[in-house]
Design a protein that fits this description.
The protein is an alpha+beta fold and 476 residues long. α1 (10-18) crosses α3 (113-127), α5 crosses α6 and α9 crosses α11. It has helices spanning 10-18, 29-41, 113-127, 149-153, 224-238, 269-286, 309-321, 363-379, 400-413, 428-434, 459-475, and strands at residues 45-48, 54-58, 70-75, 97-100, 103-106, 136-141, 163-166, 174-178, 181-190, 194-195, 199-206, 242-248, 259-265, 295-301, 305-306, 325-330, 335-347, 351-360, 383-390, 418-421, 439-442, 447-448, 456-458. The longest helix has 18 residues, at 269-286.
Length: 476
């Protein structure tokens, strides 16, 4: 079997093996079973729960046997996202890895470095006979990317460790000290269709940067769904049209990069094209400094059914008014404090479904944003439903683990570890909420453009950060 990475380096071997096994959110069973086999092959204690979480335990190495237990944790699921022209089948095909300028990519798809790097670190440590460490509890969770269901379902009463290192961190030079809480919201708006005999058209907006809805929400990147809704709303002011469908976005925790709208109109095709191009040009001009790669395409297609003119107007007004993006910042910690991501929209036979991801450092701000969406849905005759919730991870002034990590980082790099609060949701909040005395830190290698097909991993950082983790375990 050919390797793109070096199979003689354990972290690289285990990472590449992981890319050959399906492990998208809700599709982790095969990889969860792989972890159980790994534990048995290495003579390690292992528990696998009904949802697929795996906990592997290893005794401390010589001289560390009686030291307090340390928990290492990472999630095994990845976001499945691909370029619009990619035919990759995540459930059947391995990722197509390649290296360019010191970075690891997967051709046309997400890479899964979030959080395959953390998983590979733990497997390399569990396999090793030479890495010094206290007794370990290695937690591999599922369904992190879709609501942290694995971490919430895990039996935390069985955990002995009170020192906790989360390896779900792509900072390389920093450790998280706080994170936002979040929730998922689904809105549904009635959108029954009627027979339509007018000519049909499809407009597609693509080429936006997208990105993680926590780490990238403050970068003022374009939201393809919002742009498409604005374009169609403005277009309807100048020409008659009836909406047939609007579909965009892939994941609730990713800013949507693409959106397609289909509509019918009795106006001349050339008038429609020129008007739509002019409006899109205005929208693109707004993004020239933050997301200038937006592209526009259009074509004539057949449309047999569409919403009535009145219903079209109501739906477009609803979508035009829906909020998305950064809501407020914490000026002390220099991090977003509240945001909402208009993430996915799908058109069915009788309704349009909109999915949101809300994030906030406080419950009150999160509830306020959710209430706004509930009222929007109510005013426009739609429905509102809440999905997964997860707690914030509040900042703690004192942390022995943080001090130890800073010492290890300084010893290996000669530099000072940075402390950052983040807007993304992390499983640390769930463990901190369940076990308040847990001393939690995070660390991991440098990943870029996560949750997008452009995701890539800094291979030097991948190797260097593992040495810092080794040094940290040795110091414990």
């Amino acid at each position: 079997m050919e390797f793109v990475l070096n199979p003689q380096i354990p972290i690289e071997k285990y990472f590449e093996e992981m890319t050959r096994i399906p492990h998208g959110s809700f599709h982790e069973k095969e990889y969860s079973d792989y972890l159980v086999r790994f534990a048995k092959e290495h003579g390690l204690s292992c528990d696998q729960d009904a949802i697929g979480n795996v906990v592997i335990r290893k005794e401390g190495t010589a001289g560390y046997e009686d030291h307090p237990v340390v928990i290492l944790q990472a999630h095994m699921d990845m976001v499945w996202a691909r370029d619009s022209d990619s035919g990759h089948d995540f459930e059947k095909e391995p990722l197509k890895l390649y290296i360019e300028d010191g970075f690891l990519y997967a051709k046309g798809t997400t890479l899964g470095a979030d959080d395959g790097t953390g998983v590979s670190y733990m497997l390399a440590i569990l396999e090793s006979d030479t890495i010094a460490h206290p007794p370990l509890e290695c937690i591999f969770t599922v369904q992190e990317e879709v609501g942290m269901f694995g971490a919430m379902a895990l039996d935390k009463k069985s955990l002995k460790g009170r020192r906790f290192l989360s390896l779900d961190d792509g900072g390389a030079v920093s450790t998280m000290i706080a994170a936002a809480g979040g929730m998922r919201v689904e809105l549904k708006l009635p959108a029954g269709k009627e027979r339509c005999e007018a000519a049909g058209y499809e407009i597609v907006i693509r080429g936006l940067l997208g990105g993680h809805s926590g780490s990238c929400i403050s970068k003022e990147r374009g939201n393809a769904i919002k742009l498409a809704a604005r374009l169609l709303h403005e277009l309807k002011k100048e020409i008659p049209l009836r909406l047939a469908s609007i579909d965009g976005g892939e994941k609730e925790n990713a800013i949507p990069r693409d959106c397609a709208v289909i509509f019918a109109s009795s106006e001349e095709p050339e008038v429609i094209r020129k008007t739509a191009e002019r409006i899109f040009g205005q929208l693109k001009e707004e993004l020239k400094n933050t997301d200038g790669g937006a592209e526009f395409s259009w074509r004539e297609i057949c449309v047999s059914q569409a919403l009535s003119e009145d219903l079209t107007e109501r739906v477009l007004e609803f979508l035009y008014l829906l909020p998305t993006g950064l809501r407020s910042r914490n000026l002390k910690l220099q991090v977003p404090e509240a945001s909402e991501n208009l993430a996915v929209i799908r058109t069915g036979d009788e309704e349009i479904v909109v999915n949101y991801s809300l994030r906030a450092a406080s419950e009150s701000k999160k509830e306020s944003m959710a209430e706004e969406l509930r009222l929007f849905a109510k005013v426009f005759g739609g429905t509102y439903e809440e999905g997964a919730r997860y707690p914030a991870w509040p900042y703690k002034e004192e942390s022995v683990m943080r001090e130890k990590l800073a010492d290890a980082y300084r010893k290996i790099t000669g530099e000072e570890l940075q402390l950052v609060a983040v807007h993304g949701g992390v499983e640390c909040g769930i463990f901190a909420s369940a076990i308040p005395e847990m001393d939690i830190i995070t660390f991991g290698s440098r990943g870029l453009d996560v949750h997008t097909p452009g995701e890539h991993l800094d291979l030097k950082s991948f190797r260097d950060c593992f040495e810092i983790v080794r040094e940290l375990l040795k110091s414990l």
